[in-house]
Amino acid sequence: MIRKELSEVPEYVPGKSVEEIKRTYGLEKVVKLASNENPYGASPKVFEALKNFRDFHVYPPKDPIELRERIAEYVGFPEKMIVVGAGLDGVLENVFKMFVNKGDVVAIPIPTFPYYEILAKIYGAKIKFLRRKENFETAEFDERAKLTIICSPNNPTGNVENFEFVREVVESVKGIVFIDEAYAEFTEKRLTKLAEYENVIVGRTFSKAFGLANLRIGYAIMNENFAREYMKVCPPFSISTIAILAAIAALDDIEYMNKAVKKIVAERSRLEKALGKYFRVYPSEANFLYVEAENSDEVCYELERRGVIVRNLKNFRGVKNGIRITVGKPEENNFLLKALEEIF
């Protein structure tokens, strides 16, 4: 009875939780540097906006027009080109519903976020894995692809894609190019402008820089015709009123977000230098660092025993002994460095 495509679909494996590590090792203090969350959290304006909310019995609006208008102001594109969804994952799944038929080619550079492959398999697509260069920039594309997914900055490697190369991809492929910019706020080298092309969709999120990961608010910039069709496949009431109010409040305090990003970027630079003592560390334009260890299983285990959770990337296709480390607050990063000093 279950669709046969699901036999090929791996379950998405998230990072371990603080509670799990505390329980497993009997620890009181655990620092989580595994899920690329903003350690400074949401703006105080978010908490202020939600403190008197009482309408839990009322459905949210099907089309949160005020939020879309505010996002449009933020990204510099017309409101008619803005769509929203339950996290960027939800937005991308709606894009799959719109475009991907069974047997269509979906092109994915690897290594990258595993959920792309999961969605492609769920929808019965043929997957073309694309090579990357030594610096992790995408090295090729497939003109036949119905959907090409490009993540920039890329998760888990942290690199940004070359703008002119991605423009070449956009102008050469016969299908849609989805650009995942979940980490766009952490870099100046963005691809957002390419949303001007009819076959480009740029996805963004409030989960990372804005600190609203728990509320699941994603959005995309796409041409107006696509945006109208998107509403047909987007589940009704997929974003709660609480999430809508929080996102609007976050956009009311861009200064807070920018300050948090500035602190994270400064710590990223410090942490990159410090980690070089123990690993091969790759430059990053995101809020995390990608490192290669001799044995990632052993390193992650020893860190967990000492109360530090990082992301072992063994379930990321194309990665061997890679570890992704979220940039935390200075005291969290120091806790990590102290643990590494003990291990090595």
Automatic annotation (TrEMBL):
UniProt-listed SUPFAM superfamilies: PLP-dependent transferases (SSF53383)
Enzyme class, broadest EC rank: transferase
Pfam families, A to Z: Aminotran_1_2 (PF00155)
The keyword Transferase is annotated on this UniProt entry: yes
Keywords: Amino-acid biosynthesis, Aminotransferase, Histidine biosynthesis, Pyridoxal phosphate, Transferase
Residues bearing PTM N6-(pyridoxal phosphate)lysine: 208
Entry-linked NCBIfam families: hisC (TIGR01141)
Ranges where the Aminotransferase class I/classII large domain occurs: 29-340
Family: Belongs to the class-II pyridoxal-phosphate-dependent aminotransferase family. Histidinol-phosphate aminotransferase subfamily.
The protein's name in its UniProt record: Histidinol-phosphate aminotransferase
Encoding gene, per UniProt annotation: hisC
EC number(s) from the headed UniProt entry: 2.6.1.9
